[in-house]
Amino acid sequence: MATVFQRCKTDKRSPLYPCEKVRCGHDWTVRYREPGGRTARQREESFTKKTAADNFANKMENDKNVGTYIDPNAGKVTLRVYAEDWLNRRVIGDATYSNYKAFIDNHLVPRLGRKTMAGVSKADIERFKAAISKELAASTVHDRMKMVRHIFWSAKEEKVIQEDPTKGVKTAPGNTAVDEDEIPTLPEVRLIHEHISPQYKLVIWLKAGVGLRVSEALAFHCGCLREDGVIRVRWQISSKANRGDSKTRLVPLKHRKEGEYRDVPAAPFLCDEIAEHEKLWPPIPLTFQDQTGKTRQVEVFFAPRERGKGIMPTANTFGYHFKKAQIAAGVVDADGKPKYTPHALRHFFASTALAAGIPIHEVSRWLGHKSIKTTVDLYGHLVPEAWDRCREVMQKAIGPVPVEVPTEAPEESSEYGPAA
Predict the structure, then answer these.
(1) For residues 363 and 236, what is the distance between their CA atoms, to the nearest angstrom?
(2) How many Å apart are CA 155 and CA 109, to the nearest integer?
(3) Which residues contact 414 (CB under 8 A, 6 or more apart)?
(4) Measured between alpha carbons, how far is residue 349 from residues 71, 199, 330, 355 in Å?
(5) CA distances from 408 to 85, 99, 316, 403, 405 (A)
(6) In whole angstroms, what separates CA 204 from the centre of its chain?
(7) pLDDT in tens, 203-261
(8) Residues 38 and 49 sit within 8 Å (Cβ to Cβ)
(9) Distance of CA 202 to the CA centre of its chain
């Protein structure tokens, strides 16, 4: 059982001992044990008021009895420390890790990082959501708030906190459909291709003509182009590929396991572009380890040719050149900033294929989406046949029925003349 006492009256080691005043105003101490009986750790907490000490003692004993005990000191860890530890314990891909790390460092820690886990309230989470909603897209806010919820859910499961402050804080998923303004036109794609660094010209067509992700295009190697005019995608560039000590420079595709791949049809013009790139930029052998630890070697197309430029280019490397090319080509918005991200070239591929009548489930497979629902949510509104079919069906089902206008009957006549 927890005991409540004043050291000034019972502890001879206290500098206040012996205190003979009845209401001396000195602190009250609660001594109790964690769950586990006599062998459990003994702890103490101090309070200025006896009523607060009594309430705490009763709560500790009740929590132990019903199995909801939480170490009061556990919640004193800061959100910054706990979030970093939580992220390092996740088994996730490099790209997802980088996205989560960037959000924690750039948004979560600056606003809530100094608070203790137990000190974060529901109001704090609501204010945080409102703040990032002014900076990020609705779909991004929805996705990142799911991560914040998982952080506090884990903290509650691990008995770091007693109540989850994210409970009841709602966020709408937002509209994930691609805006037509986010899709470059063919003349704009050609302009970007014309002005980008020669080494990365092929990446433009691997994305706009095959729909590869940036990390997949940068991992393009001699084994990707098959004899039957098919691009076989098996690996993507790791986010750590540019580090000199990195051994896993190529990693499995997004949503895929080691050894899995996907095939995408390649147009003849793309096969010609690949051949031209090979003449100017001969592939370079790259040795890496797969996730099983097996050493592999492939001849990659996009290894750096200049000294001091790292081992392999990453998505950030290409992003820099992509922005630079847009500025040089004049593909900018009203503020003079680049209009598109590299991902816009994937949108170009998907929208072009769908506009030509290719079934959306085929496009979904070529894009490597985890589910066709993702493809439908992103590009379903770009299928022109669906809109036309809908108009036709609704017109037939609901539209006004055409009224037939009767024609006048001809006048009857006889051999004696027209009827009277």
Answers:
(1) 20
(2) 16
(3) none
(4) 55, 21, 22, 10
(5) 89, 76, 78, 16, 10
(6) 23
(7) 999 999 999 999 999 999 999 998 888 999 999 988 777 777 777 788 888 888 888 99
(8) no
(9) 27
